[in-house]
Design goal:
Length: 288
């Protein structure tokens, strides 16, 4: 028994050392905004963004500096996981020039074991920036609101049944960018279990068949199995929820950046290419 206990202690000590040496990564922490500030200039919604999405530059990068406090460096990039893509060189170069004190990444990045997994191959730009932040020993956060906070915001406008449907299909449509899964039904069931495991939307649907039945009734001309969000969300309540979700996420992002710059931090932020131009004028109105 004594040998078993010693083995267990040594095992957990070994795991703790791997975490402390950044061999094993956990998901970045959420950032808790102390007080929301009223926006001077509204965030551009997705309807307005449609007028520029095909013509704006990518990556969409810019910096905003406060006259007396901190600064922010924004990088709007494509969500890709090819380590050889030139946008990752852009991120590295701008990181070295900015010398940031805080990094923010999009999404809820999960567990990573760097001995066996490449951060970019697994998490794209978020993986790269997380690695840079860990190497330089600076603070790292996800700029997303907590899922519960986001759901509560959406519940003010939409029924929970539609919200649960949205959260289930969102990762499926997003990951279709990287190819269709071998078994779409199993993958949707997986997302139903993992992406609706929150207080207000848990247990609303039990199986992918329920969602499939609703989909066929509400979106009969679209086969969800072959659908990617690169085509945009189908018109209707899912599109409206997607737009509202993006606005709520961007509102939270602007609040984080504003608070950190006010504290004198040098903030480095990566995000999907659509977010960057949509918050630009808002940030310029907030950071003086």
């Amino acid at each position: 028994m004594k040998k078993v206990l010693i083995s267990i202690v040594l095992f957990f000590l070994f795991i703790a050392i791997l975490f402390s040496c950044n061999v094993i990564w956990k998901s970045p922490s959420f950032y808790d905004v102390k007080e929301n500030i009223e926006l001077i200039t509204p965030i551009m919604d997705m309807e307005a963004y449609k007028e520029i999405w095909q013509i704006h530059r990518r990556p969409y990068c810019y910096s905003i500096r406060s006259k007396s406090k901190g600064e922010v460096h924004i990088l709007g990039v494509e969500h890709i996981t090819d380590p050889n893509n030139a946008q990752f060189d852009t991120i590295r170069n701008l990181w070295n020039r900015a010398n940031p004190t805080v990094a923010l990444v999009e999404g809820r990045l999960g567990f990573l074991f760097t001995w066996f997994q490449d951060p970019i191959d697994k998490y794209g730009e978020g993986g790269l920036v997380s690695g840079l932040a860990k190497k330089d020993g600076i603070s790292l956060y996800t700029w997303e609101p907590t899922r519960d906070d986001e759901i509560e915001i959406l519940m003010k406008q939409f029924p929970v049944e539609q919200i649960a449907m949205f959260y289930t299909f969102r990762p499926y449509f997003s990951n279709m960018r990287h190819g269709k899964p071998e078994n779409p039904e199993e993958k949707l069931q997986e997302y139903l279990k993992s992406r609706t495991n929150y207080e207000h939307i848990k247990g609303i649907y039990q199986s992918w068949e329920e969602l499939d039945s609703i989909w066929q009734k509400d979106f009969p001309e679209i086969n969800w199995r072959d659908y990617s969000d690169e085509q945009g969300w189908p018109k209707g309540y899912l599109y409206d929820i997607w737009n509202a979700s993006n606005l709520s996420r961007d509102f939270h992002l602007v609040q984080i950046i504003t608070e950190l710059v006010e504290k004198g931090e040098v903030v480095f932020v990566t995000m999907g290419a659509s977010h960057s131009p949509r918050i630009e004028n808002t940030l310029k109105g907030m950071i003086k």
